[in-house]
Design a protein that fits this description.
With about 120 residues, the chain is an alpha+beta fold. It has two helices and six strands, in the order αββαββββ. The protein has a six-stranded antiparallel sheet with strand order 1-2-4-5-6-3. The longest helix has 16 residues, at about 45-60.
Amino acid sequence: MLDAGPVPSVAPPPVPEWLGATAVDASTLEMPLRETLRNPWGILHGGALASLVDLTAAHVTAGITTSVVLHFLAPNRVGPVRATARRIGTRADGAVLRIEVRDQGADRVTALAVVTSA
């Protein structure tokens, strides 16, 4: 049996605060690539990137993500990491967004996502 350890005495911060995600404009969020967000290979953890995509969709639509197709194209090594959303359509279940993730320091696209937000 695994031991989860002691219950933290302080509640964790909200996800945007924990990631350090801040708004650049009405369609873009950015976060620093902190050491605590890197995986054992020294690159941004995929879950942190997926969270940034989800937060960006919420930032643009004020809705909740109902589906995501996320393609990892290249590692994020330098930072900051920036996610920019563009509305590409509407379905019965919400707005459809294309979200491009870039490693600003490396000047390259690192992930592409198609997100439905209701």
